[in-house]
Design goal:
The chain is of the alpha+beta class. It is built from 9 helices and 13 strands.
Length: 289
């Protein structure tokens, strides 16, 4: 029996498939680029009360309860679905978050990528710190420098931001006036309304209590918080307290302070889970017709 005739490979079809795939990829890139551009053009959200922060940031150890130096890229703890890396610099603390969130507020008013001018006095006063203290002004300078030197990558599987938390800055050493810039691409972290406006008064009541501040920020991103294991909270907040028993004691005190500042019910249950129960918002009674 004769061997079956071998059909020649249709290389033209292969080329056509590759060209079609390449064209699809190019179109997808164009769509994503346009979407990113729209997010950037929209700028950062503005609200009358509170200071908007991306949930990716608040649901991780990026702004932890203790500082740590990073000399190479390392992933920090975050909830499932979020990946946060610090490439280099110091991991910022909750005190740094006070500075960063106000930088974002100024950027929402004046525009990202544009020069934002302020005095040390006005900035410190706005975040509730002593605007006249020399040590406070030095602290502000160091905090801004830390934010500019912290290179991060934050991703939710679709959108990623990588770069410094503060793009650049300038300081007049004689007048204590600053000029800073915030990277416009930070806007992608606010996509799909994925942000929370922290209650400034509640947060201020927790100043000098970094674990309580972190808990406040973390649980503010949850409308109806579900229980988290104590060891999970220990990891997510970036605590350097390695002994779980000791951390649990610190956590109990922090939850008490959180409850006092917010009116939430906060406790650790019998299964060693942190339970936070928020008061339900009451609706006005219906009008009588």
């Amino acid at each position: 029996m004769d061997d079956p005739v071998q059909k020649p490979e249709n290389r033209d079809d292969d080329k056509g498939d590759k060209a079609a795939a390449g064209g699809l990829d190019a179109k997808l890139d164009q769509i994503l680029s346009r979407h990113e551009l729209r997010l950037i053009e929209a700028g950062l959200p503005m609200v009358p009360d509170g200071k908007p922060i991306p949930n990716h940031v608040l649901r991780s150890a990026l702004f932890g309860v203790t500082a740590k130096a990073f000399r190479r890229e390392q992933e920090v703890a975050a909830v499932d679905g979020i990946h946060v890396y610090i490439a280099r610099g110091y991991r910022p603390t909750q005190a740094h978050l006070d500075v960063w969130e106000h930088c974002l507020v100024l950027a929402s008013k004046h525009g990202t990528g544009k020069e934002i001018r302020f005095s040390a006095y006005s900035f410190l006063k706005a975040i509730g710190r002593n605007p006249n203290g020399g040590s406070e002004r030095k602290w502000l300078y160091d905090a801004l420098l830390d934010l500019a030197g912290c290179i991060v990558k934050v991703s939710d599987g679709r959108y990623s931001y990588f770069g410094a938390l503060l793009e650049e800055g300038f300081k007049d050493d004689k007048t204590d006036e600053y000029v800073i810039k915030v990277n416009p691409r930070l806007a992608v972290l606010f996509a799909r309304g994925n942000w929370t406006a922290l209650d400034s008064k509640e947060r201020a009541a927790l100043r000098r209590h970094p674990l309580a501040q972190w808990l406040h920020a973390f649980y503010s991103t949850h409308a109806k918080p579900h229980p988290y294991k104590v060891e999970t909270i220990q990891r997510l907040c970036g605590s350097d307290t390695e002994e779980l028993k000791k951390f649990r004691q610190l956590l109990k005190r922090a939850l008490e302070k959180l409850a006092q500042a917010t009116g939430w019910r906060c406790f650790i249950d019998e299964e060693d889970c942190v339970v936070v129960q928020k008061k339900a918002k009451t609706m006005p009674p219906p009008l009588q017709g």
